[in-house]
Structures are given as C-alpha cells and as structure tokens.
Design brief:
Elements lengths: L30 H10 L8 H19 L2 H4 L4 E6 L8 E4 L5 E4 L9 H13 L4 E5 L5 H4 L2 H7 L2 E6 L8 H14 L4 E3 L12 E7 L2 E2 L9 E2 L21 E6 L2 E5 L5 H8 L2 E2 L6 E3 L11 H7 L3 E4 L9 H8 L6 E6 L15 E3 L10 E6 L4 E5 L5 E4 L3
Parallel strand pairs: 3-4, 4-5, 5-6, 11-13, 13-14, 14-15, 15-16
Antiparallel strand pairs: 1-2, 1-17, 2-3, 7-8, 7-10, 9-12, 10-11, 17-18, 18-19
Length: 393
C-alpha cells in the first residue's frame, strides 16, 4: 500500500495492522434497523475512506436509533397528556418533557385486563415503562378498579390518594380494599389541598381532596367570580365523588384541569365567591359529563379553550353537562372519547372530535394532547390520526 492511500476494509497490511471492520456488538434491533444494517454491512468491499466512514456512521445510527426509547426520539420540551378509553371511567396519563409520569386513575377491573392493556398502549406511545406517580382521585370502581392488574405489569413509584374511603357501599368498600392490598408496603402518600406532586418541569398542585378545597394557588390571585350569582343550589353529596382529589397542572403558559368526579356543591365551594384557579387551556370534563357535576359557575369561570369528555358509549355524556361545556365562553372544541349513545345528535360533538363513534368496529382509541410551554397545544384523535392545533392567544 502506497503512502497517502487509505486502508481497505478487510485487508491486513504489511506492517501487521488489521483494517477489518470490527464485529458490531449485539443489539436488540428493530426490524427496520436490521434491514438497514443488512443493506449497509457488506464485508470485504473495497471503499474509499469517505465511503467507509459513511458505512460505519450509518451502522452506528441504525443501532442508536433502534436502542432509543420513543421518548428520546420525540421532539423535546413537550408535555404529553393521554385521555385513555376505559369505557366511561377515568385514566389520564401525563408525561413531562423530562419523561416523568403521572397517571390519574386506572379504570375498571376485569375485562381480561382491558384497561391495563390500554394504559400500557399509551405508555408505549410515550416511551415510558413505569409510572412515577399514581393518583387515585376517589374509590369508585371505574377509577380505582384497575390498580391491582396494573401493578402486576408496571412499576409504580408512589401512590397518592385523598385518604380513607368515606362511602359505605359494598362496591366502593371492595374497590378500596383491593386498592390497599395492591399498594401493600409500596410508597404511599395522602394528599391535601395545596400539596404538590413533584414532576420536574411541571407544576402540579392539589386543588381539592377529601371534601376540602384550596383557598389560593401560588402565583394566582383569587378573583371575584361573576358566574356565582346565577348559580343554582346543588344537593349534598355523601358519596366518594365529593371527596375526589382534583389537580391543576401548569407547564409554562399551558394549564390543564382535572377534578375527577367532584360534584356540584364542591365545585361551587372551590370557585365561589372567588375563583382561585384562573383560566385554563384544557379542561377534563368533570365526572365524565354527568349532570351531577359541571356547574356553570366553575366551567365558565375557568374558561377552557378545549375540553375532553371521558364518557362511555352508554355512561355519562349527559345533554345538560355537554351543553354547559359546549357553551362555555371561548371554547373552541369539545372532544369526546365516545359518542354518547343515550343522548341525541344535537348533544354530541362532530364525528371528527369523537375517538370511538357509535357503530365503530372496535373501540379503545384515545385522545393525545401535545403541549408546549408557550401555551400552544394539539389534540390528536388516534382513531383517525387527525390533529387539531390550538395556538396560544
């Protein structure tokens, strides 16, 4: 070999140097990476140095891409929120830009692990394999029932709830007992209004829990709520719904409100005579769109730009609640997890905004929110792939 020439892969030079490409380490390739690698790694071909460098670099890129989780490949600096279809219960997965996760409720038990399957599908999309914080809003079976199955499959960093069950119905008592058994000796914390959930890059504060509510949110000056004056009287609610833990999540200029199944009287107490929440960008319609919740004084006061109703095909999505949210000042879109089949066409959103419409061959499609700290966000209907973008005003 003459001076100035480049070694040829596969040659052993006169000075004893071995120029053969080293064998790559064993990786768990994806099929796409395996195909890429098989195309670019042809042994003992004679290349110039630039071509050989390209071979090595291409192989390295294929290996790195195959080994990275989805979270590392997605655009950085974004918050993900998944409204998961648990057929009229709640399960909302929140993943911060740091990859830390908060799961709010777990859906129903039984159904061959259906709701755990759907939570894991959202986790895979987000590129995570564990739940850092699991918040149970209250102990009704459509919120807490999925915990035992989920913890068999997924590690959970800490369990959060409002404290002991306050309802004496057999279903709720059984759901609570199963939950405590699943928690066992794992980290567990009872949350109170004003407590926070530590997620890097995101502020998450508990607004309500165990029938109590916050007086002021740090950084927000409570303002008189003009919608209180016309609000009707709501009945007492002795059920676990009124004990729901509710949160306000803030990511830069983006705000998301989830109050679990908090009912009318407790909603009014939270925002009247003064509203400590301010306005929000995204509102998870309280109580799946039941007419026991979604008092106009709170919905209009928080002034959401977009709302998601996690109703079932034959559960909630009631006309009164739908209309209140739909008519809220400044609302752009009201998304639904299902067509409310017990309602009418006038009280259902357009099909493009419904993840699982009536008559669909399958269900389980979720709604995916991607938010930026400047307040811009999008919602994607995973059934159709359609995305709507909402620019910060």
């Amino acid at each position: 070999m003459q001076i100035g020439q480049h070694p040829v892969p596969g040659e052993i030079l006169a000075d004893g140097r071995d120029t053969r490409l080293p064998k790559p380490a064993l990786f768990n390739y994806t099929s796409g990476a395996m195909q890429t690698a098989s195309r670019i790694h042809t042994p003992r071909l004679r290349h110039s140095l630039p071509a050989r460098v390209l071979v090595v670099c291409a192989l390295a890129l294929a290996v790195v891409s195959a080994g990275q989780p989805a979270a590392a490949q997605r655009k950085g600096g974004q918050l993900l929120i998944y409204s998961i279809d648990v057929e009229g219960g709640q399960s909302t997965l929140i993943v911060s830009p740091s990859g830390q996760s908060l799961l709010v409720d777990t859906g129903w038990p039984g159904n061959n692990g259906r709701d755990a399957d759907r939570i894991q599908a959202a986790m895979r999309d987000a590129g995570i394999t564990r739940i850092d914080h699991l918040l149970i809003t209250h102990y009704h079976v459509d919120h807490v029932g999925g915990v035992p199955e989920l913890v068999k499959r997924v590690p959970v960093g800490e369990f959060l709830d409002h404290g002991p069950n306050r309802e004496d119905s057999a279903s709720t008592q059984n759901g609570y007992a199963a939950y405590l058994k699943a928690v066992g000796d794992k980290p567990h914390r009872v949350v109170h209004p004003g407590d926070t959930i530590a997620i890097p890059g995101v502020s998450t504060i508990v607004l309500a829990a165990d029938g109590e509510h916050i007086g002021a949110v740090p950084g927000i000056t409570p303002a008189p709520n003009p919608y209180c004056a016309g609000e009707r009287q709501w009945p007492d609610d002795p059920s676990e719904n009124a004990r729901s833990a509710g949160i306000l999540l803030t990511f830069g200029k983006f705000k998301f409100l989830d109050l679990g199944d908090l009912t009318g009287q407790k909603e009014i107490a939270l925002v009247c005579p003064k509203n400590p929440i301010g306005t929000v960008d995204l509102y998870l319609v309280t109580h799946h769109g039941m007419n026991l919740s979604n008092a106009r004084a709170i919905v209009d006061a928080v002034h959401p730009r977009v709302a998601i109703m996690n109703n079932g095909a034959h559960k909630a999505g009631m006309p009164e609640a739908w209309q209140t949210v739909h008519d809220s000042p400044g609302l752009v879109d009201l998304w639904q997890l299902h067509t409310a089949e017990s309602s009418d066409a006038a009280h259902n959103s357009p099909a493009a905004l419904i993840a699982n419409p009536a008559g669909a061959a399958t269900d389980g499609a979720y709604l995916k929110v991607v938010a930026s700290s400047d307040g811009d966000f999008s919602v994607t209907n995973t059934r159709t792939g359609e995305t709507r973008n909402y620019a910060r005003k």
